UniProtKB/TrEMBL annotation:
InterPro entries named in the record: BTB/POZ_dom, SKP1/BTB/POZ_sf
Superkingdom assignment: Eukaryota
Positions of the UniProt region annotated as Disordered: 36-57
Protein name: BTB domain-containing protein
Ranges where the BTB domain occurs: 150-233
Gene3D superfamilies noted in UniProt: Potassium Channel Kv1.1, Chain A (3.30.710.10)
Length: 339
């Protein structure tokens, strides 16, 4: 992260404060890891409100107490503290429920046992109707939809997802859906399965989140905590997940540029090697070679949506039919280390 001297001084002066705030998580209390000093809004739902609009105290990210601290610095500190919160449901301050609408029985979660020591917690519902969302069944019906419940920490989600950050701050899912930010208008998620809050306590939101590809969400969450592409890369190489699926999740959630850049470069190297070779060839023949990583990163991020549309036309679903492996050293725009 390149910043000027004045910003470095800000980070130095506030570094101890940020570290202290991040470490002051109330383990087991369900409170946010980062203190939020803003009072509850006056428009908070009353007990007489209908079940589909549960009481919830919005959370801003970053909180007012960290005003002036670069978001990159906060994110780096969250990554450094990830081992203290990963697989720690007792300190979780939110729950994300992911439905698997097309699964038969218990769905498979690629590499879940590699990234987590916890057993996945599944429940079932007969439909997406709000009256059935809380139903549990020991013998699920034939049309039962499995759902996984993930106790997580809102600060990690908000730091990387503009969509979740908006939901946690109190925005309505429809407002976000039709705004200029993700999810995009061509999202594959039907309108009757929009994200929504479920009945919850004011300090522990429970969010029903029907992402386009539920089989890759846990891998994205691991990246949010640790900033590591390792397991996503391994699952892509082994064909355990579909590139298009995780790419649609990235667009739907409005994730930060790092993951978009990684997926764009992975696509060019493994799913469309001819395109990568042409780009490298064009660069060699050009009189001027651009090396500005910011321009390359922006280009890769913009191209991700175009690649998804191209995949729809070619019917590529994460498989690699006869494509030869290409070294990751050939990436002209990749500035992020891949382990």
């Amino acid at each position: 992260m390149s910043i000027d001297n004045s910003l470095c001084r800000v980070c130095h002066l506030k570094g101890a404060q940020v570290d202290s705030l991040l470490l002051k998580c109330c383990r087991g209390s369900g409170q946010s890891m980062i203190p939020h000093n803003s009072p509850a809004p006056a428009q908070a739902c009353k007990p007489t409100s209908p079940p589909q609009m549960p009481s919830f105290e919005p959370r801003l990210f970053p909180p007012p107490s960290l005003t002036g601290v670069p978001i990159e610095y906060i994110t780096d500190q969250l990554h450094n503290l990830a081992t203290h919160f990963w697989d720690k449901p007792e300190t979780a301050d939110c729950t994300i429920i992911i439905p698997f609408p097309h699964a038969q029985g218990i769905p498979e979660l690629p590499a879940f046992s590699s990234i987590s020591a916890l057993e996945p917690s599944f429940s079932f519902t007969a439909s997406y109707d709000s009256t059935n969302l809380g139903r549990r069944a020991t013998q699920p019906p034939l049309n039962a939809v499995p759902r996984i419940s993930l106790p997580l920490h809102a600060d990690y989600l908000s730091a990387h997802s503009s969509y979740l950050r908006g939901l946690f701050s109190g925005a309505l899912s429809l407002d976000l859906m039709y705004s200029a930010t993700p999810p995009t208008s061509n999202s594959s998620v039907p309108a009757d399965r929009l994200p929504r809050l479920m009945p919850c306590s004011p300090d522990h939101p429970i969010l029903f989140l029907p992402v386009p590809d539920p089989t890759t969400f846990h891998l994205i969450v691991h990246w949010m905590y640790f900033g590591d592409f390792k397991y996503i890369q391994e699952c892509l190489h082994q064909g355990l997940i579909q590139w298009e699926g995780i790419a649609r999740n990235v667009e739907y959630l409005g994730l930060s540029a790092e993951l978009k850049i990684f997926l764009g470069n992975w696509y060019n190297a493994w799913l469309d090697p001819d395109r990568e070779s042409e780009m490298c060839s064009d660069g060699d023949d050009s009189d001027t070679v651009f090396t500005d990583s910011d321009e390359d990163d922006c280009s890769t991020e913009i191209e991700l949506e175009d690649i998804i549309e191209t995949d729809n036309e070619k019917n590529l679903r994460g498989k690699i039919p006869g494509a030869r492996p290409i070294s990751f050293q050939s990436f002209h725009s990749l500035e992020l280390p891949i382990s």
